[in-house]
Amino acid sequence: MGVKITQTPGKIAHRAFAPLSRWISQRAFRWRRRHREYLSRQWLFDTIAGFVAGGKVEGSYLEFGCAWGSSLIDMNDAMRPYREHDKTNFFIFDSFEGLPAPAGLDAGEHVRYEAGQFACDLDLDQCNVRRGGVDLARVQCIKGWYDKTLTPQLKQELPIEKAAIVLIDCDLYESTVPVLDFITDYIQTGTVLIFDDWYSYKGRTDLGEALAFTQWRAKHPNIQATEYHKAGRTMISFIMQVEAA
Ligand SMILES: C[S@@+](CC[C@H](N)C(=O)[O-])C[C@H]1O[C@@H](n2cnc3c(N)ncnc32)[C@H](O)[C@@H]1O
């Protein structure tokens, strides 16, 4: 006598939906693989937003290298769950003409960076930023080359007291030097500095953002940096401490 196999409704449904479930999980897997760099950056932004909110580090968000606005939108999303978000002002600094021609120490050192790369229309940036849910009334955009715009005069004009978070995403050593000089007075104990391109030069610390940061720290012995989260292929962050001079 043969064995009678009884099919429960649960088993039948499971079989019927198996191809669909396989299709969905394959898609999800592929999406995750394609976006893991992005997800990793969002994880870093979420952690840092939580850190400054939890530690009551008050101040503005400063971003050097904004282009189409994707990091600004993502950081705004990361900060949104916290009450401090409503009090945060966002300052973005960019030529919107892309990178300057790599010169000096940057010349020939990176296979990828070239003049004009990441050039972007400011209107497009603002349009993306608005669509991305950022309140434009709280965003101030300073357009121009850093070596021309980041002046003591600009500091007097901008309503920045202290920075809570600074994102430096301008790729080059020559661009990072004026940025660090400019933000020195805005740094307080607890400010988080994020470098997007720390490892972009094959991990060399004698080039790019890493070199600019090392040299800047040597000039300011009263400012200490505690290494914090890293993300993706090239990002790193530091929590800053400032001793009274
Ligand atoms: C990689 S993109 C920024 C990408 C952006 N953070 C994002 O997530 O979409 C680098 C930006 O830095 C800007 N930049 C680099 N060096 C600069 C300089 N010396 N002065 C002004 N802007 C500069 C470029 O215009 C470019 O938009």
Order of helices and strands: HEHEHEHHEHEHEE
Can you list the ligands bound to this structure? S-adenosylmethionine
Shape: elongated
Low-confidence stretches: none
Q: Classify the secondary structure makeup into a structural class.
A: alpha/beta
Largest sheet features? 7 strands, mixed
CATH topology assignment:
Rossmann fold
Explain how this protein is built:
The protein has helices spanning 9-54, 70-79, 122-131, 146-149, 152-157, 173-183, 208-219; strands at 60-64, 90-94, 139-143, 163-168, 192-195, 223-231, 235-242. It has one domain: Vaccinia Virus protein VP39 (Rossmann fold). Strands 3-2-1-4-5-7-6 form a seven-stranded mixed beta sheet, with helices on both faces. The N and C termini lie far apart (93 Å). Strand 6 and strand 7 (235-242) form a beta hairpin. It has 245 residues and is α/β, with parallel strands linked by helices. It has seven helices and seven strands, in the order H-E-H-E-H-E-H-H-E-H-E-H-E-E. It is elongated, with a radius of gyration of 23 Å. The structure holds S-adenosylmethionine. S-adenosylmethionine (SAM) binds at residues 65-68, 70-71, 94-95, 98-100, 118, 120, 145-146, 169-172, 175.
Summarize the structure.
The protein is of the alpha/beta class.
Features:
binds S-adenosylmethionine, 245 residues, elongated, Rossmann fold, alpha/beta, 7-stranded mixed sheet
Topology overview:
Layout: H1 9-54, E1 60-64, H2 70-79, E2 90-94, H3 122-131, E3 139-143, H4 146-149, H5 152-157, E4 163-168, H6 173-183, E5 192-195, H7 208-219, E6 223-231, E7 235-242
Parallel strand pairs: 1-2, 1-4, 2-3, 4-5
Antiparallel strand pairs: 5-7, 6-7
The structure holds S-adenosylmethionine (SAM).
